[in-house]
Amino acid sequence: MEAFNEFLGSIDHHEHRERTKEVMGWVVENFPSLCPELKWNQPMFTDHGTYIIGFSVSKKHLAIAPERAGIIKFADEIKEAGYDHTKQLIRIPWESTINFSLLKKMIEFNMADKADCSTFWR
Predict the structure, then answer these.
(1) pLDDT (tens digit per residue) in 46-80
(2) Which residue among 5, 26, 86, 116 has the highest number of C-beta atoms inside a 10 angstrom radius?
């Protein structure tokens, strides 16, 4: 999590900072083999040099970016969780609960799907 200290410190709203810290801490705890990195001023996790999942914050939501393949694979579950999404990211309103089960599935999918990937992006 040290890689994210500066990023977390830049989040002005205390509750948003704590929520973001909680989610990223959950990833660290549940996927200790992933490497926490800050690239393009965005916190993300990589595996053998390939992107697995990233996060960003806005005034209205925490965004989770599992790449387009993850959005397509889990589109129905994302909608069932009550989250909005684009082609590249999922928007979780600050007042919503985090569906950690869905987050786990997305990370596991990307790790398995990109196990032999030699590039950063798909």
Answers:
(1) 999 999 999 999 999 999 999 999 999 999 999 99
(2) 26
Domain boundaries, the chain: 2-113
The CA distance from 9 to 90, in Å, is 23
30 vs 77: CA distance, rounded Å: 21
Q: Quick one: CATH architecture of 2-113?
A: Alpha-Beta Complex (3.90)
Other beta carbons within 10 angstroms of residue 17's beta carbon come to 16
Q: Please check whether residue 114 is in contact with residue 50, taking contact to mean a CB–CB distance below 8 angstroms.
A: yes
Question: Can you tell me the distance from the alpha carbon of 53 to that of 45, in angstroms, rounded to the nearest whole number?
Answer: 5
